[in-house]
Design goal:
The protein has a four-stranded antiparallel beta sheet, with helices on one face. The protein has about 100 residues and is an alpha+beta fold. The two termini are about 10 Å apart. The mean pLDDT is about 90.
Length: about 100
């Protein structure tokens, strides 16, 4: 059985570090902001100058790789466009 990855405080701190690294590398073209952290899931707002017609989903995947580098495995659960210039993406945290 897979091990649990830590308590909520540790996970939240790690998620914030991953988001910071994502933004350091990709902003201002793409920015990721934590909207909500709830048991086993994170909701992230993606905004910026990214192309919304092609390649936007690559940014959603990039966050998966950033957090993997910090020891957190996530997968996309849902996404939706919000207004003209951003997406909301819900990720499921594996082994939570």
């Amino acid at each position: 059985m897979p091990q649990k990855i830590g308590d909520e405080g540790e996970i939240l701190e790690t998620v914030l570090k991953g988001l910071e690294r994502f933004n350091d590398i990709r902003a201002p073209e793409a920015r990721a902001q934590l909207v909500e952290f709830r048991e086993g899931e994170i909701l992230v707002r993606f905004s910026g100058y990214m192309c919304f017609s092609c390649g936007v989903f690559d940014y959603f995947d990039d966050l998966i790789y950033e957090l993997r580098d910090f020891g957190i495995e996530i997968k996309i659960k849902d996404f939706r466009r919000e207004g003209e210039d951003c997406y909301l993406v819900t990720y499921k945290i594996k082994n939570f």
